[in-house]
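Justification of resources, computational component.

The compute hours requested in this renewal are based largely on the per-chain cost of generating structure records like the one below. Each record pairs the submitted sequence with a full structure-token output. That output is archived, and it is also reused by downstream analysis tasks.
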Amino acid sequence: MKKLSVKLLSLIITILLILPLVFSCGEESPAQESKPTVKKSFEEMDEKEKAFYLLKSDVIKKTTNMRIDSKMIITGSVNGLVPVEIKITTADVDLTSDSGEYTHNSITRVSAKSQYSSASTFLMYGYQDGKMYIFTSTNGETSRQWSPVSEEDYKKCIKDVESSAMSDFGDLEVTRGSCILSENGNYIATYSGASKGLIAFFEKILTEYASMFKIPPVEDVVLTYEITPDFKLISIKIDLVFKKEPYFDFSMITNATYDNISFEKIDLEGDGFVQVEDLRDQLKQ
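The structure output for this chain reads:
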């Protein structure tokens, strides 16, 4: 498994958190239609209008005091003989205490295994007590570093990484959407008709992590959001539609948690961490 890009790993986490903030709507969306003279309430909208309202109005967004867990799994056989599994799991914790203290921790684990070999990568970065830290481990080789940085500069660094990575793929658009009320009272919003930029993003992931398989072109990306009645994100499921049947299975799901969120701080003064002047450029590489 090739050396992994920190930018791509962090984007796998952030793409699912900020999709509603960066999506624009394609030709079929209500945003392209003439503005109504009377403003509708959410309940008065039809299924399509509700779906695009959720994307266009900044209703679903990343907030403080939340945990996001994601899992992406690619399984298949190389040349129809050797079974291979690639698994990426992420956990992103964002906390602000009652006193205003900000803590962030993001963990990504990547593993690839077959009956003959295995490889793994661990990436953790975050912010606590005025310090940014990065811990990486690839097949047993580790690096632990921290540097002083203000909360404002750390958040700007994360935002710059997200913006830079997103700009590589152009507009992220969907042209079709619907939103229904489920039996448990939550909203289920489904989107498809993905833009070239959105398709290119997922083809990049497949190229990075599933290059041992024959990868057919991606025809569409289908996203399914489950959202509470007060517009809190519960989960996002992503399905890829290929132009022909692939030689592997792909699954990706994200779950959000808001209650009883806690995080045990990292021991930056011990546990092998070394102080360096500035870590922000490492995250932007």
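The chain has a mean pLDDT of 82. The chain is about 20% helix and 40% strand.
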